[in-house]
Write a structure and sequence with these properties.
Elements: H1 2-98, H2 102-108
């Protein structure tokens, strides 16, 4: 019977110790949760306005960026046309300078 009383006493102490540990974990988690909620609220109040402003800015700037891209595209087409004309002019000047006739020019394999 003496061993049974020791077993019951040790088991009771273990249960009380576990209850204390679980209570400590509960209160610690509550404090951590409160801190995390405060951080989440701070992030929300500081970052959401920045994100909304960035989105508004992108909406406002998009037509201007599209206009710039259209202008660059048009300019590159113009430059390409001028380069092709310049190439033809230089080839013609070279042919005249070297004295090649159009029929000799085609035999050389060059096309203007």
């Amino acid at each position: 019977m003496d061993n049974l009383n020791v077993f019951v006493g040790v088991t009771s102490a273990a249960v009380v110790l576990q209850t204390a540990i679980l209570g400590g974990m509960y209160f610690s988690m509550r404090k951590t949760r409160a801190k995390m909620e405060a951080i989440a609220d701070e992030v929300r109040t500081k970052t959401l306005p920045v994100i909304e402003h960035a989105q508004t800015l992108l909406i406002e700037v998009r037509p201007q960026v599209n206009n710039i891209l259209d202008n660059v595209n048009h300019s590159s087409r113009l430059v390409r046309g001028h380069i092709e004309r310049l190439d033809a002019t230089v080839n013609d000047a070279l042919d005249r300078a070297t004295g090649l006739s159009p029929e000799r020019h085609s035999r050389r394999g060059r096309h203007s």
